[in-house]
Amino acid sequence: MKNLPIRLKLVLATVPSLFILIACVAFFSFELNNINKQAEDTYYTKLYTINTTLINADRDFYQSLKGATSFFESSWNAKKGYAPRDSHLDEYVSEYEENAQQVADRAAEVFAIAQTEKSLWTGTKTEDGQTFEDVAAEFDVAFAEWRESYNPSVDETDDIKYTDFNEKFPIARDKLNTLQEITEVWAEKEIVSLASRIKKTIMTSVVLFAIIAVVMSLWATALTRQIGNGLREVSEKLVHLSKYDLSQDNIRVDSHDEIGKMKQAFNDTQDALKNIIGTLRDTSDGLLSASNTMSSGTQATANGVDGVSSASQDLANTSTAMAQDVTDISGNVAELGSIMERSAASASTLTDASAEIGNVTKEGNKVVEELADINTKSLAAFQSIFDAIAAVEKSSDEISSASEMISSIANQTNLLSLNASIEAARAGDAGKGFAVVADEIRQLSDQSKESVDQINEILGRLQESTNGAIEKSNIVKNMVDKQNEAVAKTRESFSSIVASVSTVESAIADIEMINAELNAKSRVIEDSVSSLSAISEENAATSQELSATAQTVQMNVDNLRNTQGDVESSSGGLSEIVGRFILSGSDISGDIEG
């Protein structure tokens, strides 16, 4: 892990979280899709089909009764001579048989659908413990007995069978009502189960997202700490280096990534600077010693001008010593040039390392910008979810309005059934059939009102769930805002790194300036060495004629003094430059004592 490139570390910190987020969204979408399919299968394919088919069967049941009643009354009136024989008797019989057959077919269809849902067929019971299967079997028996009690084509005006026929009708019809009640109870249970599953899915998703957020935060924190520790260690060392302190221990290199390479480059640079400054310090001491020697020789030459004869041999010896010193100085100057070349190479290496740090920082800023863009898109996605929740809340309000309208219609239907009952009572025996219909309409009105109450209750629970979803969405939104703040802090950290890199570049510029000054002083020393070499050769050649050329010697002595001043000045400047650097703890204590 330590040896991976920083770019790959940053990728490892972001890409896994992206894939995990995509997987969570896919899981959440898959679960919601399954719940949606289950709801569609429950409320449309089964509940809606069963209720619609039962209502149609009930209607056909009434139509069949109406056909048989019309046939019986017409036949009875014709038999008693109250009216001529009705020409529509065959149509009444056909109406009875066709609608009765439709009742049987629709009941069979309902039973087939209910058998596919075990929780409906045998898992839901009435208050007296009957299941859908039990009531279906009782309906088949009651319906068969109803049809067998009176056959219009055979029994015609048989009062007894017709009366038994009418008495068994409500028994069979009550079974249809019981089937509808069982279906409604089953639907309520399914609603509760579906709501529980949705709540469980939401809670699971929230917990999963929270765990992922914590894990990825710990992962990102570990990577950031590892990178930050390395950069901070190099930064502290560079601060000491910018203060000319070369006494610090080398950085421990424990990785091979960009930061490890930067640490190694710093260690190499510090070692190279130590060698350079140490050599320059030795060279400076040699220059000072040579300057003192030149000063002594010049003084001796000046004192011996009056005794040129006796001093000629001393001048020859001094010239020989001076030639040797010049040779040493020339060698030191050449070594100083080599040292400055190595210093320039080290400065170039440090410049490259600084540029690499800048590139890494830019890439880090780019990754942070991409992460900020991802957070913005996540916030937009969550806003879409919030809008969908608001749309659900609006739809529930519209359903509530529709339920109020249905309630109003049920009240009006109840009023109409009451009026119909009054009119049937006024009609006497002729209005009995109409009274039955009016009573059924009233019962349907009551059932519609109960259904409206149930819808309102369901809407209430739906609104509570919607409010809970809104609260959860606000929590998610706050989490996204906090993540944006974390991205902003990361961006500020990279800005601090850029500032540190600027400090390193400034220190490198100082080193290059020092190298330029050393180069300039080196050229001055070379010129001085050349002058000294020429003077020493001239003194060696004219030592035998020194007596006759005392004035020339005096002039040469003056020139030598000037050259010695230049050498001393150059040596002092070089010592001052070298003295800025601290190579060990003893240098620090020496500066304090000085």
What are the SSEs and their pairings?
Layout: H1 6-80, H2 89-115, H3 118-121, H4 132-149, H5 152-155, H6 159-242, H7 258-303, H8 308-427, H9 432-541, H10 550-579, H11 585-593
Helix pairs in contact: 1-2, 1-6, 1-8, 2-4, 4-6, 6-7, 6-9, 7-8, 7-10, 8-9, 9-10
What is this entry, summarized?
With 594 residues, this protein is mainly α. The chain has helices spanning 6-80, 89-115, 118-121, 132-149, 152-155, 159-242, 258-303, 308-427, 432-541, 550-579, 585-593.
Could you walk me through the main structural features you see in this protein, from its secondary elements to its overall organization?
The chain has 594 residues and is mainly α. It is 89% helix and 0% strand. The longest helix is centred in the middle third of the chain and has 120 residues, at 308-427. It is rod-shaped and about 185 Å long.
Tally of DSSP helical segments: 11
Query: What's the helical proportion of residues?
Result: over 70%
**Average predicted local confidence, pLDDT:** 77
| Total strand segments | 0
CA-based gyration radius: 55 Å
SSE order, one letter for each helix or strand: HHHHHHHHHHH
Strand content: under 5%
| Biggest beta sheet attributes | none
Low-confidence stretches: none
- The outline comes out as rod-shaped
Supply database-style keywords.
594 residues, 11 helices
